[in-house]
Design goal:
alpha/beta, 8% strand, 10 helices, 314 residues, single chain
Length: 314
């Protein structure tokens, strides 16, 4: 079965399949090796994301196959200033952190071996936000600031560290590029071609570090060079629904399509990945990421994510 990578986020994810987009570039890099599944929702914040998790990520019995990795890319809308024109999208910082924990917990409870990658919001060019408002701005002040985005970016990285999962600090990375305001962003928020390239490279490197790089995956059916011109059908004789053996590469893992490795003992941890970890933290207990649900009026929703084995400590 061909593995898949799910891209979950706001408009920066929704637009990633456009020309030159980071999602489209990933799909091209991993073509015939992994499927990119786009789950981007323009304008969404982490509060709204929690409301739709069950619909976005159906259980296996409902058609939800086990993904190799999921990118979680929220924060740009959460960081909107509450008293500005996009204040209805704002999520307070502490709630944002707890929402990220609950999102990670939901995904890990559903798919314990899936690699979860948190991506911070990008930096903000405030002058450009005034030139390109997408909601009527009657007070003449930007609805976002780079300072606020940076605060939420640090919070995102902190949650990833708590959960011992990878994080991409896009806010910091982009500001290392000269003239990032115009090089990486086209409207002070959304990504230009250069900005998309930055995200693509960061996600690619992170996937590679987790053992899900292009070199770790194999094609899911015989290549043309694996077909004997005199007996072409023999290339397909040994195929089954989940495994591939070709002269060009090794047998694939039946679930993830990765190069076959020796199995490792199962352990519930934030950092479980499809490939065996290179090192083991002997001091980490399996329950070191237990979610403590925040006090909220929506207790039922929060409890639905913090079931059985949970993964992120408050």
């Amino acid at each position: 079965m061909r593995p898949k990578v799910v891209l979950f986020g706001d408009s920066i994810t929704e637009e990633s399949f456009g020309d030159g987009g980071w999602g489209a570039s990933l799909a091209d890099l991993l073509r015939r090796k992994a499927d990119m599944v786009l789950r981007g929702y323009s304008g969404y914040n982490t509060r709204w994301a929690l409301k739709v998790m069950e619909r976005v990520f159906p259980a296996a019995g409902d058609g939800g196959a086990y993904p190799s990795a999921v990118t979680v890319f929220f924060g740009a809308n959460d960081a909107c200033l509450p008293a500005r024109c996009s204040g209805f999208q704002h999520v307070p910082l502490l709630e944002y952190k707890q929402n990220l924990r609950l999102i990670v917990s939901f995904l890990k409870n559903r798919w314990p071996r899936t690699v979860i990658i948190l991506i911070t919001p990008p930096p903000i060019d405030e002058e450009a936000r005034l030139r390109y408002p997408y909601i009527e701005n009657t007070i003449g002040l930007p609805e976002r600031t780079n300072e606020a985005a940076g605060t939420y970016a640090k919070a995102c990285v902190a949650v990833a560290n708590e959960c011992q999962i990878p994080a991409i600090d896009l806010w910091s990375k982009m500001q290392q590029i000269p003239n990032w305001q115009t090089e990486c962003l086209w409207d002070g928020l959304h990504l230009s071609r250069v900005g998309n390239k930055v995200v693509f490279e960061e996600v690619t490197n992170t996937l590679k570090g987790e053992g899900i790089g292009a070199e770790d995956l194999v094609v899911d059916l015989p290549l043309i060079e694996d077909v004997d011109p005199k007996k072409p059908l023999t290339a397909f004789d040994d195929q089954d629904q989940n495994a591939v053996v070709t002269r060009s590469g090794p047998k694939t893992s039946p679930i993830l399509g990765l190069k076959e490795t020796k199995p490792t003992p199962a352990a519930h941890s934030c950092r479980l990945s499809p490939m065996a970890p290179k090192t083991e933290d002997k001091n980490r207990a399996a329950s070191d990421c237990t979610v403590k649900s925040k006090e909220t009026s929506d207790v039922t929703l929060a409890n639905s994510f913090a079931v059985q084995d949970s993964y992120c400590a408050v």
